[in-house]
Sequence to fold (632 residues):
Amino acid sequence: MTDQHQAAIDVRNVVKKFGNFTALENVSLTIRDNEFFTLLGPSGCGKTTLLRSIAGFEQVTDGEIQLFGDDIADLPPNKRPINTVFQNYALFPHMSILENIMFGVEMRGNDKAVARTRAGEMLELVQLSQFAQRKPSQLSGGQQQRVALARALAPQPRVLLLDEPLSALDLKLRKAMQLELKAMQRETGITFIFVTHDQEEALTMSDRIAVMSDGKVQQLGGARDIYETPDNVFVADFIGETNLLKITVDQIIDGRAHCQLGGGHKLTCNEVQGIGVGTQVHLSVRPERLFLSTQPFEEESMAATVIENIYVGTDVQSIVQLNDGPKMTIRTQNSELGNKAVFDLGTNVFVSMEAGAARLLHG
Amino acid sequence: MATKNFDLRSYKGFRFLTILCLVILYAPLVIVTIYSFNDSKSITIWEGFSFRWYIDMFSGPESAKFKLAAWNSFVIAIAAATIATTIATLSATSLVRGGMFRTRTLSLGLISLPLMVPEIVTAVATLIFFNTIGFDRGLLTIVIAHIVFCIPFAYLPIAARMQGIEDSYEQAAQDLYASKFQTFTKILMPLMMPGIISGFLLAFIVSLDDFIITNFVKGAGVETLPTAIFGSVKQGIKPNIMAISTALLAVSVMFVTLSYFVSKSEQKD
Ligand SMILES: Nc1ncnc2c1ncn2[C@@H]1O[C@H](COP(=O)(O)OP(=O)(O)OP(=O)(O)O)[C@@H](O)[C@H]1O
Ligand SMILES: [Mg+2]
Fold:
């Protein structure tokens, strides 16, 4: 009955003001049923505010939020089939783990026996059955996180909100939980809206990502879209590492923009809608899509000097100074020493890029 | 040790003052306690250890009067503390959790102000109030007066406890389909319980020990333990008073200690 692309949550022109301060500025996005959707953005950009508006803890100043086609403005939080995994978990300290998980099921009108069975299943799912009788304070952070997840999933909500649930965990546990969460979403088929300010986390887990800053959605798309074809400077800069170069568009021929970089360096890249000849714009190239050589690899290879090599485990990051131009960062995989070589400091090299690697950006 | 000279927390000489203060504070209590075990009809001459005045407390010539007074005190304290704690819990909920309504700061001040009003003023005012509305003085007037002055004592530990409870628990409960009322009874109340118990015990002991207000609003012939002791002492101090006072002291200390530990014990989670 629920087709893949039915909208679970439809946020329409939502504005949220705290006094004079605008936390959400005309946000519109559609979250599909059964999808793992991520809100990604720097601290203070309004992610929690949007999540709280969906959960019903904030009343929007303007606009509308629909849940499966119905406006939910007048529904209090306890009437919305939406559950939240809170950032600090907010497990009830006076209840056992089992009682915590039973709570939502009981409050939804099921009797104790049903709630107990359901909670038992959830405990099994998060592999904490042996801790059923413990109090939350007797569990580790990772275990508490799993209890919070089990508690939110137990009443079988239609949408699950997760506000930076992994931020308190160490790197290793976080990676493991990322996979677990992703698997759980796939198994349950519940729509997940996940909040994070960690771009790597967003890229690994999400079907689609909304990148936010300053209360606005900057770009919405799949991990690949956002990483490879960012819409603007903010997105390119926030997601992963990139070389942002100031350039001027000289001419556009057959959908290819011929650009001028300082110091007489020339670059060609795909044309982008709305960027015309003569405009000063930014160009973004990911460091891993550049490579160095001692001889020019192609016509547009740019002469440069190596000024720094930084060893970062899996990669070596080289910083080069283009002759009469800006600096650029190049990432070379540690194992792959073919034409992607690392050169000593001071070596005169040529920087070349893979076809289609450069992207023109608005702003 | 070199560090000792730089220890900013040590002020030499203040230790002596502290000990002096403690001696002045506790000497009378210690003396009363010791002499309550004196085997003598005199209150100043020590004649050996005995429980005689404690036995007298239960079977002596004045025992009937004191037993009734103690019973009155107990009933009044239970009633006053229960009602005052209920009112204080509800006020704390609305003041701490009710958001910023306009009279909030004013209400907060007003609820703890009675602690600073001289008790005699409250006593006189309460008496005048009862006279004005033509209320016959008796056990009921004592209970009403006690409820009123117990509220701030019950309120303080409850509000303190409540301020320490993050509102994320209540939000989590509502997120999990609990109504406002269910959130209050299933989440907020249990979390506040240490504060509520502590407030109840404090209110109980304040009511049990009260003399001034009780003395003003009690009807003729109705006595509580403190007023009965006072009445008896007016005719000269007898050793049985020391035993009764020591017993009352023991009960007070017990309750205050209990209240302290209840409010401390649960602060950890
Ligand atoms: N109740 C409030 N009153 C006033 N301002 C608020 C309130 N809640 C949030 N804000 C402001 O709105 C902005 C967005 O806050 P929000 O909590 O949504 O950020 P966030 O994206 O979740 O950040 P973080 O990653 O740090 O959690 C912030 O500038 C914050 O100061
Ligand atoms: Mg947040």
Remarks:
- The pocket of adenosine-5'-triphosphate (ligand 1) is lined by residues A 18, 21, 23, 41, 43-49, 197 (CB under 6 Å).
